[in-house]
Amino acid sequence: MTIDREPSAQPVETLSDSARVRVCIARAKFEWETTVDALPDLICLLDPAGRVARVNRVVERWNLGSISGVLGRDLHGLMHEHCGPDACALQTALSTAEAAARAGETREFELRDPTLGRALHVTLRPMTSVGGDATPSTDGFAAAIVADVTALHLAREALHAVNAELETRVRLRTDELADANRDLQNEIMRREAAEQALRRSRNELEILSRQQIAAQETERKRIARELHDSVGQQLSAIKYSLERIEPARQGRMAEGQLQVLRRAITGLQDVLEELRSIAMNLRPAVLDDLGAASAVSWFCREFAQSYPTLQLQEAVSVSDADVPERLGTTVFRSVQELLNNVAKHAQAHKVVVSLSRRVDRLVLEVNDDGVGLGSTTPPSALRSGRGIHNLRERAEMTGGQFTLSSGQSGTGSQARIEWRLAAAESIKPPPA
Question: I need a surface site. Which of 113, 127, 138, 288 has the fewest CB within 10 A?
Fold first, then answer.
């Protein structure tokens, strides 16, 4: 504010009452103006004509002129000394605020002023009388407070720029994630399609395996029947005819010829036995005539005769009716394969064959006391051969589970196939 001089330093107690009041007023005015000059905002007092009556020293710090040089200007002329005839944004906003102040309203606005290079927050507050009513003061019309909010605007602009950049990055990242998610979904679809194709191929392979096994069993059955009914009967007829020739020609044939005839009859007998053995191995008639339990018992007896040094213990505790028809061939072939593996690879002295049944399960076990599954087991027994693979495949195709483990003492092996039976195949427990 305009200050002519500092209040007199003469002691107040030596002055008259009127002089004492003037000194106190001057001192209060000096202190107030000093405080206002220290504020960072431009503060102006406008007279009833809207001219600058008083202003603080911020006008000099903003390079708008000296305090005495700007007195009498309007607020727009104070800040825009060389503004053109066309109304600028600041002049329009000040005119609107001045009209509101004359109506007794306080008006505030903000704008970015390119002339000053500052962002301004302008408050125009009407002056009222000391009593607090709405009557305008005779000394001033309104007080104008102009604050420099450039730093705040720059911070806002920087924040907006950061937000815009962040939104751009988020949008780009979202697009990348969307693309990655789309690629992942496509990959999942491709893998699901591949899994379905693999599942179909596996099912087709299982169907082909079943058909192959069924065709193989059918062909074995046909060949065994042909060997027994056709070739076997013809050889038996030839043998019978030769046996009838020997007594009839015994007195009229040389001894050498009789020896040849006897050797031919003995050879035919051996061929018939071999043919019968081949037919039984291909498809034992007892499997079709009686059932799986009888076939397993027959094969155990034949196996014991073929390998007399191997002690075989049979523990078949089921009847033919206890084994479902769909499992008959699988049970018999499994026993065949397991015993043949024991004879070829186990180097065992004793083997136990067990076939038992619970309420809803059929269990086949073949245990031996051989070399077991350690490092001494021949590779062909577990890796090179197809026996174990065929056993597991047969079991799985018929709803069973095949396991092969070492014996409890670390020697020998335990082969186990367990079939879970359907509800219609289960044995109903007796009533309590």
Answer: 138
